[in-house]
Design goal:
The chain is of the alpha/beta class and 209 residues long. It is 29% helix and 25% strand. The protein has helices spanning 3-10, 66-73, 93-101, 135-140, 152-161, 179-192, 202-206, and strands spanning 14-24, 34-40, 63-65, 79-84, 105-110, 122-125, 143-148, 169-174, 196-198. S-adenosyl-L-methionine binds at residues 49-51, 85, 126-128.
Amino acid sequence: MNKAMQIQVDKGEMLPLMEEFYTIQGEGYYKGTAAYFIRLGGCDVGCHWCDVKESWNADLHPPTAAKDIVENAEKYSDTIVVTGGEPLMWDMTLLTNLLKEKQLKVHIETSGAYPLTGTWDWICLSPKKLKLPTEEVYAKANELKVIIYNKDDFRFAEEQAAKVNKDCILYMQPEWSKRDKVIPEIVDYVMKHPKWKVSLQTHKYLNIP
Ligand SMILES: C[S@@+](CC[C@H](N)C(=O)[O-])C[C@H]1O[C@@H](n2cnc3c(N)ncnc32)[C@H](O)[C@@H]1O
Ligand SMILES: Nc1nc2[nH]cc(C(=O)O)c2c(=O)[nH]1
Ligand code: SF4
Ligand SMILES: [Mg+2]
């Protein structure tokens, strides 16, 4: 990347765009709601079960002007989900300001491992043991979505639930490859601890992006 472009990336004027698509939010509180997804490249958290490993290397995804991303996105939906990769690796201030100027509802999917930038209508925090969230994102998260891969993830889920704000909605979501094993365990856990809700990756059952 040349120096001029690097400066624009540092300011959030350009962002490594991996893909964008209009679909149905498959997970969490807004499951079932049509939304336009903006997937940004770059993540160094390293979840071994990550379902978008192609996103990790930001250099593989072309720096794209935030203004152009927004002008395109507004044609599709009034709800925009920014995901990745880890979107908070980048300065989200300009992107979210431009989306809000168009009166769009702006949601984020994040591990919370980087400083919280941008103005959000909905923050989905999906914390990871390998790189824990910042204090600020625990205070501002609207939903906590813990991925359950093994038994220790129930302990981790409770530890993370103790850190979020009191209005935060709590979800356990099965790791996709382990779903047959962990779904019965999650069902049992949620019935015993009803402050939790189940979240499924419903888009994968619907065969949509
Ligand atoms: C690909 S991540 C991108 C956003 C951000 N890096 C994060 O992890 O929240 C989007 C969502 O998918 C979840 N996810 C990723 N791989 C998964 C898998 N194999 N099974 C279930 N959920 C998964 C993440 O925990 C996160 O909630
Ligand atoms: N339909 C659909 N819903 C989603 N919710 C969160 C996703 C993500 O990868 O961030 C996702 C995704 O990739 N597709
Ligand atoms: S933090 Fe998100 S994008 Fe990064 S590896 Fe984990 S699930 Fe994948
Ligand atoms: Mg996904």
